[in-house]
């Protein structure tokens, strides 16, 4: 099968490319050439900006991709132009979406008041009532956050009568190459031999569906290669969804960290750890549909996923410019105030 990937060279994309090549598919990536990945030489590159996607229709026609994977659709316009351009060229389109389409996401960030939505969220769970979740953070209409909305992307992709669409709603993705350092943020404290990691006490038991990048890529490859994925929307994620406390402990075991996870009331947290979230809303999705319809199963077990990620994170430490010693001093003050560390040894007291 010939697969065209819009994007494909940053974090999740290269894993998808390699898995497709291993299964002997041909891959072309369309991107601007600003993000380079170490992809095998058999991968064809078309350099261009997706804002001009329609101008590349003739090139796309030449090598006739059967399936187009759009890794980066962000706006309604992206979705509409994608389908218009590929109609008559490709047989199917797969588009990458996110758990941020669910109303639960707005409940969590307190953008939409109301009782928590029941979890796990199936693909039929209520979507956000309000569009453009990040518009308030945009300084101008030119910023991507202004028009970003995966709900509108999904509608454009799924309503096309001639070109079947598939939507994959991704969880929080972690693994080697994660520039958000979802795991690295905790690992830094562990490797700095911090006696404790502080959390808002409500976040201790908050659950979030995460996905190790190679597993997420495997789910995407199934949606590309299996025709029964046409016209379907799938949640993607690893099971089980750990609480934040379990997640940190799990990382700690593999990082050989002997500290404790300590929950404190939100108002006692140092400023750098405060978050405006309603943790009564868990963000856990039901991944049963992709498992039963496409035969998805994790290809990398969670222990190995954490080990591989820790190795990468240690080789690519966080460079976020955070005043780390100031942060640690603020955390120490809280830990001392609640008696969670032994002042003479700076070791965590066991609960
Ligand atoms: N990471 C997570 O936790 C998470 C969670 C939920 C959903 N997602 C979704 O996952 C997707 C991103 O994954 P990824 O970054 O790993 O994807 P990726 O496909 O590995 O990387 C993004 C690609 O887009 C290309 N690109 C960026 N702007 C472009 C433009 N204007 N025109 C053409 N190409 C462009 C980049 O190359 P150039 O720079 O060379 O153009 C790069 O190849 C997004 O849809 C995101 O919403 C991620």
List the helices and strands and how they pair.
Blueprint: E1 2-6, H1 12-22, E2 26-31, E3 44-47, H2 57-63, E4 67-70, H3 76-86, E5 92-98, H4 103-108, H5 144-147, H6 150-158, E6 165-170, E7 172-174, H7 184-191, E8 196-200, E9 210-212, H8 213-225, E10 233-235, H9 244-255, E11 260-264, H10 288-294, H11 302-315, H12 324-337, E12 341-342, E13 347-348
Parallel strand pairs: 1-2, 1-4, 2-3, 4-5, 5-6, 6-10, 7-9, 8-11
Antiparallel strand pairs: 12-13
Helix pairs in contact: 1-8, 3-6, 7-9, 9-11
The chain binds NADP nicotinamide-adenine-dinucleotide phosphate.
NADP nicotinamide-adenine-dinucleotide phosphate binds near residues 96 and 98.
Give a quick precis of the structure.
The chain is an alpha/beta fold. The protein contains 12 helices and 13 strands. It is 33% helix and 16% strand.
Description:
This protein has 351 residues and is an alpha/beta fold. It has a single domain (2-348), classed as NAD(P)-binding Rossmann-like Domain (Rossmann fold, 3-Layer(aba) Sandwich). Helix content is 33%, strand content 16%. It contains 12 helices and 13 strands. It has helices at 12-22, 57-63, 76-86, 103-108, 144-147, 150-158, 184-191, 213-225, 244-255, 288-294, 302-315, 324-337; strands spanning 2-6, 26-31, 44-47, 67-70, 92-98, 165-170, 172-174, 196-200, 210-212, 233-235, 260-264, 341-342, 347-348. The strands form 4 sheets. Strands 3-2-1-4-5-6-10 form a 7-stranded parallel sheet, with helices on both faces. A two-stranded parallel sheet has the order 7-9. Strand 1, helix 1 (12-22) and strand 2 form a beta-alpha-beta unit. The chain is globular and about 70 Å long. Residues 7-13, 31-35, 49-51, 71-72, 96, 98, 170, 172-173 line the site of NADP nicotinamide-adenine-dinucleotide phosphate.
């Amino acid at each position: 099968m010939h697969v065209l990937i819009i994007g494909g060279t940053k974090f999740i994309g290269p894993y998808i490319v390699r898995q497709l090549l291993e299964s002997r598919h041909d891959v072309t990536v369309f991107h601007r050439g600003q993000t380079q990945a170490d992809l095998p030489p058999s991968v064809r590159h078309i350099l261009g900006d997706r804002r001009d996607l329609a101008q590349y229709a003739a090139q796309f026609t030449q090598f006739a991709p059967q399936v187009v994977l759009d890794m980066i659709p962000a706006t309604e316009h992206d979705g509409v132009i994608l389908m218009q351009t590929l109609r008559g060229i490709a047989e199917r389109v797969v588009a990458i979406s996110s758990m941020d389409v669910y109303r639960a996401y707005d409940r969590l960030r307190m953008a939409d008041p109301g009782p928590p939505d029941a979890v796990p969220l199936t693909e039929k769970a209520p979507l956000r009532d309000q569009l453009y979740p990040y518009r308030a953070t945009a300084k101008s209409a030119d910023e991507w956050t202004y028009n970003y909305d995966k709900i509108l992307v999904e509608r454009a992709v799924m309503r096309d009568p001639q070109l079947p669409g598939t939507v994959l709603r991704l969880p929080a993705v972690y693994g080697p190459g994660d520039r958000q350092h979802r795991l690295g943020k905790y690992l830094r404290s562990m490797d700095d031999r911090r006696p404790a990691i502080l959390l808002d006490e409500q976040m201790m038991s908050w659950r979030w569906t995460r996905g190790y990048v190679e597993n997420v890529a495997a789910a995407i490859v199934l949606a590309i290669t299996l025709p029964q994925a046409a016209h379907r929307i799938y949640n993607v994620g690893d099971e089980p969804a750990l609480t934040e406390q379990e997640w940190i402990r799990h990382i700690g075991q593999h990082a050989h960290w002997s500290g404790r996870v300590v929950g404190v009331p939100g108002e006692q947290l140092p400023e750098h750890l405060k978050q405006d979230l309603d943790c009564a809303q868990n963000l856990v999705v039901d991944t049963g549909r992709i498992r039963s319809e496409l035969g998805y199963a994790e290809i990398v077990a969670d222990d190995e996923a954490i080990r591989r990620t820790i190795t990468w994170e240690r080789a690519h430490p966080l460079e976020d410019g955070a005043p780390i010693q100031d942060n640690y001093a603020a955390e120490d003050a809280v830990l001392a105030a609640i008696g969670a560390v032994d002042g003479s040894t700076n070791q965590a007291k066991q609960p």
